């Protein structure tokens, strides 16, 4: 990989100053990806490269994506050259995305590097690099290109290029002859793909390519989804340097308009990549993170914590999530680790990740929308789920997926339980923040309050949207009344928005009243007019982690009268291999149930859930990810990197307040949501 020695030294020096102490060997590649074409915004982001220790910046999407833009669009050339100069001023390298094929009207192609079409392609790259010599590297992006190579009919040497891998190899060879041999620039290959059958094509093409490429693969197969397994191509693309692509901006998790502090998720992916590398010949050298999705950016939002997390992980790939969050709270809010407010902020941030997982997914399925906004209808949600189903990457989810397509009443109850948990956590985050008024700078408090309020609002909208979607798929005669009830609740929220009930939220994306009403109108058209009735069932509330140690995790929740509980644990979703009964006899209803899971492995990922048992049956909660502390850290850490996450007295006080609020609401609906 062509990273200048001086640049690498500067990067590692910066990282060691900003993010010390470094416990594992730092990685040489720390990238950002910019997608928005606002020049002033991009220059502002680039000026912060040194603060985070960024070494490479990719210019993509609305900035530049096709080689012909650098031939025919002077404004694109000017933009790229200006941004590249700014990146160089910060000691970094500028990489431009180039989709291939870059035309949408191509149905056949001669892939022979000596042929006329490929020679014209090579000349286009010569012209582009001659016209914008500031470019340091070219990222060939095959997936989601105007025309994808595997679907092109080869027009010459048909027998050879009948194999799709040969088309990829030929394109890489032709472009690299120009970019690497003639201009001395670096070629990067992005392995974005849509379906599993493309994986061996890309794997073989890269393994058989002798060029010193750098490969970039999304952390997941196809697209960003925290329940998906690690991308099969990580550390399995031959003897090439490889980075993976993360999403710090949250394209599918609220785009920063809703906080999604995904530190645990990023730590999980880094650990998985390092483990995979041990068994393969590939060289994992770092990551790049999307800073924005057009006008919505991680910069200036709570999702900036994700950019900080990537910096921490590149500097020390074995750093734990709690340490990252602790350091971020100190940096972003100037709240030192020895203050109680520090740990409360850490807890608020980590719980935004839980809210996003429960709100945007259904038992791990990407069930609603390829994006952060509401689906237009049930049909829209179904189309997305079929296209994005997790079962194509992990068949263990097959039965879960079937339960989403035609949900039973128990399925419905558990799906609502999961969505209720998102709302419950969002409400507890707001209550926890209210205790910090006076502890934070006024502008920080106001910003956090608006973001957390919007997340609470969005989680309520998604609860009722999901309730309507899944109830409509249920075969019971009463299901239409359940759908109608959820649509009624959505309309009430839209009315409240129109009446200014959330005036402190300046931008209501992704929960505008227009989008809510559009969904309701589409779904009402498929219903027989009837009065809405809520689906009844138990609700497990207040689930949280209150202590995290090397070999144990303490969890807590609210108890309900007449309900017994079971805790289930796993290291591999979706199955739960360990079960722990909880003796609820004699425990008064309300906040305060605590259970400690022991005999765990240090520094290891786990997921747990609660199962509520009544005379009518069982209901399982959604999943909760936890990561045990390192063996030498005990129960507490001075910097909040592990140990006590929330003092039990504070947690019980918050739960008591939440429990009283829920009791007041309980009489309003048959199901207390």
Give a verbal description of the structure.
This protein is α/β, with parallel strands linked by helices. It folds into three domains: 5-15 and 23-319, TIM Barrel (Alpha-Beta Barrel); 341-524, no CATH class; 544-666, Immunoglobulins (Immunoglobulin-like), CATH 2.60.40. The chain has 20 helices and 21 strands. An eight-stranded parallel β-barrel has the order 1-2-3-5-7-8-9-10, surrounded by four helices. Strands 15, 16, 18, 19 and 20 form a five-stranded antiparallel sheet that branches. Strand 13 (544-548) and strand 14 (553-559) form a beta hairpin. Helix 10 (263-278) packs across helix 12 (321-333).
Oligomer: single chain
How many strands, which pairing sense, and closed or not: the largest β-sheet?
8 strands, parallel, barrel
What proportion of the residues form beta strands (DSSP E)? 15-25%
Mean pLDDT, to the nearest integer, reads 91
- Counting structural domains, the number is 3
Termini separation: 54 Å
* CATH second-level architecture of the largest domain: Alpha-Beta Barrel
Tally of separate helices: 20
How would you name the CATH homologous superfamily of the largest domain?
Answer: Glycosidases
- Binned, the helix content reads 40-55%
Query: Radius of gyration, rounded?
Result: 26 Å
Main CATH class of the largest domain: Alpha Beta
Ranges where pLDDT stays below 50 over 5 or more residues in a row are 1-23, 636-643, 666-673
Structural class assignment: alpha/beta
Question: Which sequence of strands runs across the widest sheet?
Answer: 1-2-3-5-7-8-9-10
Might you state the CATH topology name of the largest domain? TIM Barrel
Q: What gross morphology would you assign?
A: globular
- Count all strands and give the number: 21
